[in-house]
Fold:
Amino acid sequence: MAEISRHDTWQVGNSYDSYMGRWSRQIAPRFLDWLDVPQGLDWLGVGCGTGALSAAILAQCNPKSLVCIDPSEGFVATARANVPDGRAEFQVGDARALAAQTASADVIVSALALNFIPDRERALAEMKRVARTGATIGFYVWDYPGGGVEFMRVFWNAASALDRNALELAEGKRFPFCTSDGLKGLARRAGLKSVDCAAIEVPTVFKDFEDYWHPFTLGAGPAPGYCASLEPRARQLLKESLQQRLSPRDDGSIALKVRAWAVKARVG
Structure:
């Protein structure tokens, strides 16, 4: 576990945006459309990252208030810079012990974070505590077990062909519960009601191989953390293997896709 945790490097917000944030920003508006809650409510964002979902909430949902927490000081600082809206408040915080009053939020959401929380049921119990009667709790995570993040799947297939230990770090291996049934079961065990789950899929088009490769060298996330840990020769071999595995279009761009599982439930 120590070796796995070493590669979960989440402090540099701009590096994360280059790697995953740009695709998260495409998922967020679709998630909110599907969540379908009224405007003018009090929101809590758990694991706000660099602010992709927070920005979408402000743009689409006209919240009365929005409090966002994340354990990473780097992410919180980036989110504040990315989302300069007076209705939003960004704080360093722990999802397992939310610094929020009981029954104080109408909507509680989490984007691409729940799988990285060590005690997910405790985090959901905290969200339920903070939720008012009739509140909506919603979250989404990538479909890791189903290979739903195609650019990541290609990376780990190439890495594991060169290093048999690499696959132990892959998200599909680490987060087998990130399936429709697994996530609905997690929500129900937390005591949530009217649990629903849907797949949300968006394209990920890289302008060229360098656009695909460079984010893996920045160290923000398990795959980039692994890549950054390699000796130069091993990293070059991985790069060459990826170039052979990917199929660019005539203009050099690389078209893949990502899929997330979204869950929503009611409290009370």
